[in-house]
Amino acid sequence: MLHAESKPEEAPSQSPPAKASAAAPAKGGAEGSGHGADTASDEARPTRADRCLSDGELSLMSSLARRDRDLDARARDLDARERRLKELEGHLETRIRAYSELQTKLKQEAERRLANAQDRAKGLAKIYESMSPSDAAERLSQMERDVAVEILRSMKGPAAGKVLASLDSDKAVDLSQGYVAPDASPDPPSKSENP
After folding, report:
1. pTM above the 0.70 mark?
2. Does the residue 124 lie in any domain?
3. For residue 91, is it within any domain?
């Protein structure tokens, strides 16, 4: 009888591991087959690791998880902003290139127009050189200052000197100042600028 009594004692000690091993495949099978009810109830049960954590530790883990989600959201936001900045940078570079091309074209056009104006002034200067100094002086005195100065600059020195000598003294001084200035200005300098 002693031998029979020892068997029932061994059976209970082996039973629980068998149930645990049977429960493990059922849990894995439920997860693999997609049955949410079994999985949800298993997840709702505290695991051995959860029972070992204090409320403070659980709160800290929850806080860290929340912080991770916030950081992930910020990272996505920063990535979106970076993509937008790269798009804007591309648009800006395109506009800068277009502006630079336009600026180059405008500069070339301005240079072309200046060259044409200088050519016309030289042609007109030859005409004024062929006039008598008094006739040339009379006409230059009625012109805008910058045009008269440009014609004088284009004339040969002796011819320009004779025309200036034929002008009244105020006009001759004004055109002479424009003649030596780096750029002819459309307005004569005011008397307060001349010491």
Report:
1. no
2. yes
3. yes
Task: Determine the pLDDT at residue 53.
Answer: 74
Domain coverage including residue 144: 85-180
Question: Is residue 32 assigned to a domain?
Answer: no
Cα four-point dihedral sign 69, 73, 76, 78: negative
Residue 18's pLDDT is 44
Give pLDDT, residue 50.
52
CA distance 21 to 19: 5
Question: What's the confidence (pLDDT) of residue 89?
Answer: 95
Alpha carbon dihedral 167, 178, 145, 149, in 10-degree steps, equals 80
Six-digit token pair at 50? 């959860």
Task: Determine, yes or no, domain membership for 26.
Answer: no
In the chain, what percentage of residues exceed pLDDT 90? 26
Structural domains counted in the chain: 1
pLDDT (mean) for 54-62: 86
